[in-house]
From TrEMBL:
This is DNA polymerase. CDD domains: NT_POLXc. Its EC number is 2.7.7.7. GO terms for cellular component: nucleus. GO terms for biological process: double-strand break repair via nonhomologous end joining. Residues 1-66 form the BRCT domain. Its cofactor is Mn(2+). It catalyses: DNA(n) + a 2'-deoxyribonucleoside 5'-triphosphate = DNA(n+1) + diphosphate. Keywords: DNA damage, DNA repair, DNA-directed DNA polymerase, Lyase, Metal-binding, Nucleotidyltransferase, Nucleus, Transferase. PANTHER family: DNA POLYMERASE LAMBDA (PTHR11276:SF41), DNA POLYMERASE TYPE-X FAMILY MEMBER (PTHR11276). Its main location: nucleus. It is found in: Nucleus.
Length: 501
């Protein structure tokens, strides 16, 4: 149920099942009549798609059909009431026949099924478009893409150039997504990853809806929304709150463990131990001698780390890192992944993925890079620093986790630097771009096909003498680009901005 943009010329060779437009005039400004006469699909108003999304199912199309052939008939005299927009109730014979050919007798088929099916958005539709843009609906076999087309459109040239594309869903249901976000943190702090992940999957689906949810029935057929979450949504839209969240927020243990779990480096087990020691506030934790240096650093800059980083600042810091890196090692590739690469308007931290095209010069680069960034006061506090490229251990991946500052400020931000050998870079970039939902799906898919996937490579799984999976082989599958990983696993390719599943 997603949407994407491609160049208009690419649309000529695609298979379409629906053309959506504001009215007949807008339709004919974009597509000539001869093309429409050859078209083997349905021509409908945008209202049809909006009503389908609201209802959570495919609705009959006859009330929304655009009869563009009316445009070729002699116009009535002024004031006679001819607006140039067809009567939705009058469906042309061509459109009716084509609807039968596309949809058959199953009125509840998905809007787009099987192979890629695209939806052209003509000019005059009210949807913002740049040059050479069409909006397309895309469905794939296998895992459902948990995305729903929003008002946002993307420039095809910008996408092909690799520039980040801003991800701006309507998010008309913030009253629901904010509560689910709090539950994610609570369950994560309690060590209940399964429940935490169920809310995590649901949020992107809900925030992309182009309408405000007024009834739980509107989400009954949406992916990731099961009975439990549907009941939560019903309670929120009915009462404005969620009793489960209130229970957690009023429970002293849950509140304290959740708070401690937000400190960098403190996991669920450590948070529970700290609670059992009698600690209840962050000030209490200052007294504990068992905290590591990294945990103490996370505690000291707790408020700083929680502040999100505006996209334009991340972009400036990425350029700074690229300039410093290329001054040390010409040709080095430095990319900011995470929510920034997926197009989000702000980021919780910066995930920097690094490699060098020659496959050798990355060795020993990270210590020099880190030192130069410390000399300029960009990097401030260290959390984790491990070098494996020189020794050839742990797949030769070098890691630095720490805190940085935007030039001229003291506010700390989390930053991760990962340097990969070139033959492992695609896996690292994919993993550190995310999101978590996609990463988990790809790992599960890999396992089902006899592989093991992580940020260092795609490996053949090995089996013990008893036939059970024992681990992975040493050799990795050759994947030079991210798309090679998708293709090897048979998963439809997703551009970075499409990975907010």
């Amino acid at each position: 149920m997603g949407g994407r943009v491609q160049e208009h010329k690419a649309a000529k060779g695609a298979t379409f099942n629906h053309v959506l437009a504001a009215d007949a005039k807008a339709l004919l400004r974009e597509l000539d009549a001869s093309w429409l006469h050859r078209f083997r699909g349905s021509t409908v108003s945008f209202d049809w798609l909006e009503e389908c999304l609201k209802a959570g199912e495919r609705l009959p199309e006859h009330k929304f059909t655009i009869n563009y052939e009316e445009e070729f008939k002699p116009k009535k005299a002024a004031g006679a009431g001819d607006t140039g927009v067809s009567n939705p109730a009058k469906r042309s014979k061509m459109a009716s026949e084509n609807h039968k050919e596309i949809s058959g007798q199953d009125g509840k088929k998905e809007i787009a099924t099987g192979e890629h099916r695209d939806t052209i958005v003509p000019e005059g539709s009210g949807v913002k478009k740049g040059p050479n843009q069409v909006a397309c609906s895309q469905s794939s076999s296998g895992d459902t893409k948990d995305t729903i087309g929003s008002q946002a459109t993307f420039d095809a040239e910008e996408a092909s150039s690799g520039e980040p594309i801003t991800y701006t869903p309507p998010d008309l249901n913030r009253n629901i997504t904010e509560i689910f976000g709090k539950l994610i943190n609570i369950y994560r702090a309690l060590g209940d990853d399964r429940r935490s992940f169920s809310y995590y999957k649901a949020i992107p689906v809900i925030e992309k809806l182009p309408f405000k949810i007024e009834s739980a029935d509107q989400v009954k057929n949406l992916p990731t929304i099961g009975k439990s979450l549907k009941d939560h949504i019903n309670e929120i839209i009915t009462t404005g709150k969620l009793s489960k969240l209130e229970h957690f927020e009023n429970d002293e243990k849950v509140r304290a463990v959740n708070l401690f779990g937000e400190v960098w480096g403190v996991g669920p087990a450590t948070a529970l131990k700290l609670y059992d020691k009698g600690y209840r506030t962050l000030d209490d934790l200052q007294k504990d001698d068992s905290l590591t240096y990294a945990q103490r650093t996370g505690l000291k800059f707790f408020d700083d780390i929680k502040q999100r980083i505006p996209r334009h600042e991340v972009s400036e810091m990425e350029k700074l890192l690229q300039e410093v890196g290329k001054d040390i090692l010409p040709g080095v590739i430095i990319v900011c992944g995470g929510s920034y690469r997926r197009g989000k308007a702000s980021c919780g931290d910066m995930d920097i993925v690094i490699t060098h095209p020659d496959g050798e010069s990355h060795v020993g680069f990270l210590p020099k890079f880190v030192q130069r960034l410390k000399d300029t006061s960009f990097l401030r506090e260290d959390l984790i620093f491990s070098i494996h490229s020189i020794e050839g251990t742990d797949c030769g991946v070098d890691t630095y986790f720490g805190l940085c500052t935007y030039p001229g400020r003291e506010l700390r931000h989390r930053i991760d630097l990962k340097v990969y050998p070139r033959n492992r870079y695609a896996f690292g970039l994919l993993a550190w771009t995310g999101n978590d939902v996609l990463n988990r799906r790809l790992r599960i898919l890999a396992e089902s096909k006899g592989y093991v996937l992580d940020d260092t490579g795609l490996y053949l799984a090995t089996q013990s003498s008893g036939g059970k999976r024992a681990g992975r082989s040493e050799a990795i599958v050759n994947c030079h680009e991210e798309k090679d990983v998708f293709d090897t696993l048979g998963f439809p390719w997703l551009e970075p901005h499409e990975r907010n599943l």
